[in-house]
Amino acid sequence: MITCVVDYQIDPSKLDDFERFAHAWMELVERHGGVHHGYFLPAEGASDEARALFSFDSLAAYEQYRSRFGSDPDFIAADQIRDQSGCVLRYNRTFMRPLLPSRVRP
User: Fold this and answer.
1) For residue range 41-69, what is the model confidence (pLDDT) as tens digits?
2) Taking burial as the number of CB atoms within 10 A of a residue's CB, which of 10, 17, 29, 61 is the most buried?
């Protein structure tokens, strides 16, 4: 399993637009074989940071999902929310692998 962690710097005055953008991407990840763990939005402290986490079974499965960027109309529409509203100022993607609790203790 591979988990993509996306850190966003957002425009806090455009939080409603960011939420529309987030809902669109959560649906796309789920529709194309991933598991979305949610978007985490500002509550206290810094008001311009948000984070998303989603997983695919493998990097190859993620790459298959990514191959739709720029050609699939639903992916283009989701990106247009971000681009037209200016709700995302910057983002950074990191790939991680989870270390999960062992079900069997030695």
Assistant:
1) 988 876 899 999 999 999 999 999 999 98
2) 10
Q: Which two tokens stand for residue 66?
A: 């990514």
pLDDT per position as a tens digit, 8-46: 999 999 999 999 999 999 999 999 999 999 999 988 876
**Predicted local distance difference test score (pLDDT) of residue 74:** 94
CATH classification of 2-96 is 3.30.70.100, yes or no? yes
Q: Is the dihedral of CA 40, 46, 77, 59 positive or negative?
A: negative
CA angle 2, 89, 23 (to 5 degrees): 55
Does the predicted TM-score (pTM) go above 0.70?
A: yes
Of 3, 7, 99, the residue nearest 58 (C-alpha):
3
Count of alpha carbons within 13 angstroms of residue 20, beta-carbon side: 14
